[in-house]
Design goal:
Layout lengths: L1 H15 L10 E3 L11 E4 L1 H7 L11 E2 L2 E2 L26 H6 L1 H20 L8 H4 E3 L4
Antiparallel strand pairs: 1-2, 2-5, 3-4
């Protein structure tokens, strides 16, 4: 009886844990904000970042209200829901509020900044920081 109770508690904790929810192994970043891609698409190894590196979902997924991240699993997670400013030439010259909403700057800022930090802290070059390091797959692959 104790064994059954333990298993039931474990099962409930597992299912209610964020790691208990199924996630796609890899996500192909292919935003509809870009009708024509000028670079190959990006293959994002979701589980590598989540399981292997131990990141919390809210490192990337967020929904701010009154300065607090209120995102919960199951909320809309498409970046372009909020980051919907289209890419323009010289987007780094946009006013800061527009830069935060620019999808390209959001992706690149999040990825490259984290990759540089990881490489520095681990004395490695494993995390890509160049265009070709992430932009590797042609559309339709």
């Amino acid at each position: 009886m104790k064994k059954l109770a333990f298993l039931m508690v474990f099962a409930i904790l597992f299912v209610s844990s964020p790691k208990g929810f199924a996630q796609e192994e890899e996500i192909i970043i292919n935003s509809s904000l870009y009708p024509k891609h000028t670079m190959p698409l990006v293959r994002f190894p979701h589980m590598l970042h989540f399981d292997d590196l131990g990141y919390d979902c809210t490192e990337c997924h967020h929904l701010y209200k009154n300065g607090e991240n209120i995102w919960t699993d199951g909320d809309e997670t498409s970046c372009q829901v909020c980051h919907n400013e289209p890419t323009v030439k010289n987007e780094k010259r946009l006013p800061p509020p527009q830069q935060k909403l620019n999808l390209k700057l959001s992706y690149h800022g999040l990825c490259i900044d984290c990759h540089r930090k990881y490489n520095h802290e681990n004395n490695t070059k494993a995390a890509p920081i160049t265009c070709q390091g992430c932009h590797t797959i042609k559309e339709g692959q």
